[in-house]
Amino acid sequence: MRDPYLLAAGLLTGLAIPASALPHLSIVLPESSRFLWDLKQGSQTIVSTKIIKSVDLSLPELSGQAFQPLKSSQPIVSEKNVPSVPEFSSQGLPVSIESSLNPSTQATSLLLTSGNQLYYQRLAALKTGQIYTRVDSDNLQSLWESIKKRQLTYDDWKSLLTLEARAIAQGQGANHLSILVGDSLSMWFPREKLPAGKLWLNQGISGDTSTGVLKRLGAFSATRPDVIYIMAGINDLRKGASDETILHNYRRIVRRLRQTHPKAQIIVQSILPTRLPKISNSRIRHLNIQLTVIAKQEGANYLNIYSWFTDMEGNLRPELTTDGLHLSQEGYDVWRTALQQIEYTLTQRQN
């Protein structure tokens, strides 16, 4: 039987992106890579009334198991381990998690107004034995409202992400898994826009830097991902880090992920442009060129989506952002298109 998440390919049409045709998507491969399926062989992708040009997307060979749904089990986080305020226990989690991977059931969007709200919704999902990317929105809404809340810290977020990663590691089974690693751009990726039919683990933290990302890679070291998507660096630029620091951290991130997850596709995504006057987009473009080299040297893939987000002046397109830095729903639609094409290509190879 074909893998159920081939249905994700159907999502490549009809996306509501009120923007001009997106540029060519390119992905740079390490020299040792094998070239696989070429999306130029497929049909063009329709985006609203516009057309995205056919994509030349090749990835190295990826070994993976057949899709199997997760089995139900006891809650991941019990009332004993997580009290009314988030004081995370070091106790182990159950061996499997409660989840549904029916690709025909799409998560509906919740109105999120703050990072605190997102955090407590995710914590509430864990208390029911689920991951927030799979839990029913109505249940999630009522659960998070019942939790006593307090001001959060960076360490709170690290603890939450560690719990979610541990839950995935113990309940993944033979299911396919993709991981988003990065800062607030990844953290706020809408769960209902993630390609369906597989597990997703979001390891983004608002305000994080490449240094912070490097230090917390061990949180998901026990998972078995097919793909790991990396995007970081914008907060480094905001905080005055040098290009050398950012690039050195990226190299170490890729090396550590390659060592810990040798079977996973590691995809370095281009740093996105901004509309902030204090951050130079020409500097971002220079960093992206260097990231291309690092990815090639370290046996990773480089996904160039920078030009998908730029206007005629080379700035982040205004309709794709909420504040000149963070992405709007339309911005995430653009990013989703890139992820869907990668996931579809990998699915074809696995079948």
Description of the structure:
With 351 residues, this protein is an alpha/beta fold. It is 32% helix and 10% strand. The chain is built from 9 helices and 8 strands. It has helices at residues 115-127, 137-145, 154-171, 184-187, 210-215, 234-238, 243-260, 281-297, 329-350, and strands spanning 26-28, 45-47, 50-52, 177-182, 199-204, 227-231, 265-269, 301-304. The strands form 2 sheets. The protein has a 6-stranded mixed sheet with strand order 1-8-7-6-4-5. Strands 2-3 form a two-stranded antiparallel sheet. Helix 1 (115-127) crosses helix 2 (137-145), helix 1 (115-127) runs parallel beside helix 3 (154-171) and helix 7 packs parallel to helix 8. The longest helix is centred in the C-terminal third of the chain and has 22 residues, at 329-350. It is globular, with a radius of gyration of 19 Å. Residues 1-24 and 29-109 have low confidence and may be disordered.
